[in-house]
Amino acid sequence: MTNTDSKPVVGISSCVLGEKVRYDGGHKRSAFVTDKLSEFIRFAPACPEMGIGMPVPRPTIHIREIGQQQRLTDSRDAQVDHTDKMQAYFSARLPQLSQLDGYILAAKSPSCGMERIKVYTPEGELLHRKGQGIFVQMLKQQFPDLPMEEDGRLNDEGLRESFITRIFAYHDFRRQVLNTLSVRALVDFHSRNKMLVMAYSPQAYQALGRLVAGAKGHEETISKQYLTLMMRALSKPTNRRKHTNVLMHLQGYFKKQLDKADKQELCEQIDKYRLGYVPLMAPVTLLRHHLKKYPNDYLQQQRYLQPYPEALGLRA
Fold first, then answer.
1. CA nearest 128: which of 63, 221, 53?
2. What tens digit of pLDDT does each residue of 131-141 get?
3. Is 73 helix (H, G, I), strand (E, B) or coil?
4. What whole-number distance in Å separates Cα of residue 84 and Cα of residue 78?
5. DSSP type of residue 81
6. Residue 68's pLDDT is what?
7. How far apart, in whole angstroms, are the C-alpha atoms of residue 186 and residue 262?
8. Which of 29, 78, 80, 233 could disulfide-link 18, Cβ–Cβ 3.0 to 4.6 Å?
9. CA 257, CA 121: separation in Å to the nearest integer?
């Protein structure tokens, strides 16, 4: 992961990197993002509000539902409407946005917030709290499969791991499948990621297999469907039960190589993980140890054993 070109590129709200670009001149620096993730990710920071020419500090803005449309306006004056400028800004950045492998957004922002954003009536009365930021709406419409997450939600261990897993999977898929659109590339990618998908959704694992089986002659369509289904499967945090199922599946590949003591030790580590006594890294490390001693081409290519840089500590 030391090669800069091999790193995923992730868009990010500038304030999350610690830049003082918020409406009040402050920031929302995330320690996880700046101190850990930045070593393994290339960030493409941007503040959409500054991108449309707003100053720091600046008047607060609201989302107002006017007719059938949601508009980004000044919180005090609905006539000051920034929506068209935001659309122009988004359109101008499309070439850069199309190269991203993920996006980290600032929570509670009427431009960048992913959920629970306040939406007002034309008169400025609170209508509901179920909105999304205007920039996020554009991003999701144009790139529905792009991994996205809010800064605050990255404090949740399950959501954090799911998001990071998706970033690296999306990055690999773009480089290895979308750049070639061949059946061979799709089959190889699917083979490498079987155990990873199974750890999140056994149902999606089976559905993806059926997609790959029918890819010949429909490479572009099937590849896009594959990415959508995979990103959807990885978008919800997994659990110990699903991981245990995959660990036991991997254990089966060593039944002829391991002696009785090694088998017992591996069984105990998997069971300790299932019961919550040890982290996932414990049985995974032991499996990787046995894999070095007894090489297996299929297992060695499995992204499940290291879906993202180990130094991030997400399995510890």
1. 63
2. 999 999 999 99
3. strand
4. 14
5. B
6. 87
7. 36
8. 29
9. 68
74 close to 61: Cβ distance less than 8 angstroms: yes
Return the axis-axis angle of helices 281-293 and 240-251, rounded to nearest 10°: 10
Sheet of 148-150: strands edge to edge? 42-46, 9-13, 102-105, 148-150
For the chain, what are the domain ranges?
Answer: 4-155, 157-234, 240-312
Calculate the CA dihedral of residues 30, 36, 38, 40 and round it to 10 degrees: -150
- pLDDT-based confidence at 1, cuts 50/70/90? very low
pTM: 0.94
Tokens of 21: 């670009």
Give dist(CA 121, CA 70) in Å, integer: 10
Which amino acid appears at position 30 of this protein? Answer: S
Residue 16 clears pLDDT 60, i.e. is over it: yes
The mean pLDDT value for 69-92 works out to: 96
Query: Which pair of tokens denotes residue 7?
Result: 């790193």
Q: How far apart are CA 302 and CA 88, in angstroms?
A: 42
pLDDT at 197 over 80: yes
Chain position carrying tokens 């898929």? 173
Say if residues 112 and 13 touch (Cβ distance below 8 Å): yes
Q: How many helices (H) and strands (E) does the chain have?
A: 13, 8
Amino acid of residue 240? R
Token reading at 223: 């590849």
Bridging pattern class, strands 126-131 and 117-120: antiparallel
Q: What is the dihedral of CA 119, 124, 126, 127, to 10 degrees?
A: -60
301: which residues sit within 8 A by CB, 6+ positions away?
191, 192
- The one-letter code for the residue type at 274 is R
Chain length of the chain: 316
